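Here is an idea for our session: we take a single protein and study its fold together. Once you have written the record down, we can walk along the chain together.
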Amino acid sequence: MKAIVIRTFGAPQEMKLEETPEPVPREGHVLLDVRAVGVNPVDTYIRAGIYPRKPPLPYTPGTDVGGVVQALGSGVTGLRVGDRVYAHGVAGACAERAVCDASRVHALPARLDFEQGAALGVPYGTAWRALFLRARARPGETVLVHGASGGVGVAAVQIARAHGLQVIGTAGTADGLALVRKQGAHHTLNHREPEYLEQVLPLTDGRGVDVVLEMLANVNLDRDLDVLALNGRVVVIGNRGPVEIDARKAMSRDGAILGMTLFNATREELREIHAGLGAGLDNGTLAPVVARRFPLAEAPAAHQAVMKPGALGKIVLVP
């Protein structure tokens, strides 16, 4: 079968399409016929060798899949060959076939295509964990979602709106702002305008926001503290460098700055996350937005594209 192989950490061009042996599902695992693979910013950090968690070389990147169950390892129940599924935490997703722990494989509703299935794992899991397991967001609270037109941002807007939160979403283009409104945001702000955050307090009657989902903390974190309500929480989802903050802003609001990564989610948390996501997928409140599709052989281009501003949803690879 064909798969992307990385033999040296570095630039996107280190990703090569090669012939590799087809994996065999061991006990408790599932073999997937991969129809689409999600591309996430964290994939680029791992490929570049700058992420704290590094896989042994050589490796095949990618973790999120939309596909079809092709074979079952011993002991697997609740799944059948031929099932349409999405999977997260897949080892070596950028391939024509991949294996995954059966606990990380979930039914994909018929109304969603495989590309949307590949857009679920990291983005929707991250948004859910940030909102409910880290920030402990509650219905009636207000959340500010930075970069709301990207993969995690779209997921966060949909999830927050479905759970009764007031949603303020930011984007940097007219198309991005329109997308964020379409996903359910009550208010949208253009984060390319220098003083855009000054609009947050008027939108909240001077109270501020209860939760900020921060995708670029090195740029925004100090200013996020200016718009927090009393007991507000900032969840740092993305960061690309050091940042200086005035901690007194957090002190005056009894505010909290919470880091998070989906890699730290426990098995119990993942079960909770995907139970919640499954309900939203079934009732139609959640639906990933796919922005761009690349053939598997163009994985280097997809890795470059996912790091550029102006996202309008998710980038996926199609084997």
